[in-house]
UniProtKB/TrEMBL annotation:
Lineage of source species: Bacteria, Pseudomonadati, Pseudomonadota, Alphaproteobacteria, Hyphomicrobiales
Keywords, alphabetical: Transferase
Keyword Transferase in record: yes
InterPro entries referenced in this protein's UniProt entry, alphabetically: Glutathione-S-Trfase_C-like, Glutathione-S-Trfase_C_sf, Glutathione_S-Trfase, Glutathione_S-Trfase_N, GST_C, Thioredoxin-like_sf
Record protein name field: Glutathione transferase GstA
Annotated GST C-terminal domain residues: 88-207
Highest taxon of source: Bacteria
Residue stretches making up the GST N-terminal domain: 1-81
Molecular function terms, GO-annotated: glutathione transferase activity
EC nos: 2.5.1.18
Pfam family name, one: GST_N_2
Length: 227
């Protein structure tokens, strides 16, 4: 399988899930400006929307949208039930509920904060995100979103919250979420994914990660991730 990705983007979520499940995956970088891939493909011919992630299966079929991809990955192997409970188990629906919440209420609004076109409403967007994070902080059921078990929703949340420093959102005001980030960042397979994407830790707590070029452009100094 091929996973089309940008380093530290939302494609990091299915990348983490592949690592957690021990799936053989080829990472294919996509240039944001040219939409050309690292192996010379026209990415728009693979995903006409132009954004990542996209998962190309061995038979050539392509699946897009991160929440759909991580569910497919979890369902593709028996071990995946640990990351996404089986159909008919209410815990599966709880995980899917969080996937939907993260997509609509965190991922898309946070992306707006990276885009100067929306700078006039960044304050209002940040206030909305803060409201959602406060709710989520109070809902955290244990070490992870639904309790003791790490799921596909936790990987997605980790990736979105990893953008917090770049969007002027201080997670330390929500201790449960800040602790969540530290726990997920310490998982061996998560660290493998971070290293594979050449990400660096740049904060004192070592729970936020970014590409070296991004750090350099922001005047920050990071340290390479090691599994």
């Amino acid at each position: 399988m091929k996973l089309y990705m940008h380093a530290a983007a939302c494609s990091l979520s299915p990348h983490i899930i592949c690592r957690e499940l021990g799936l053989d995956i080829e990472l294919v970088q996509v240039d944001r400006q040219t939409h050309r891939t690292s192996n010379g493909e026209d990415y728009l011919a693979i995903n006409g929307n132009g954004y990542v992630p996209a998962l190309m299966l061995d038979d050539g079929k392509v699946l897009t949208e991160g929440p759909a991809i991580v569910q497919f990955l979890a369902d593709s192997v028996p071990e995946g039930a640990a990351l996404l409970p089986e159909v008919g188990n209410i815990r599966r629906n709880e995980v899917q509920s969080y996937l939907n919440f993260i997509t609509a209420e965190l991922h898309k609004p946070m992306v707006l904060l990276f885009n100067p076109i929306y700078s006039s409403v960044h304050g209002e967007v940040r206030a909305l995100i803060s409201k959602r994070l406060a709710w989520l902080n109070g809902r955290l059921a244990g070490p992870y979103l639904t309790g003791d078990a790490f799921t596909v929703a936790d990987a997605y949340l980790f990736v979105c919250l990893n953008w917090s420093p770049w969007t002027d959102i201080d997670l330390k005001q929500w201790p449960a979420l800040h602790g969540f980030m530290a726990r997920v960042a310490a998982r061996p397979k998560v660290r493998e994914a971070l290293q594979a994407e050449d990400l660096e830790a740049f904060d004192a707590d070592g729970v936020y990660f970014a590409p070296h070029a991004y750090l350099a452009s922001s005047g920050r100094t990071g340290s390479p991730v090691r599994p």
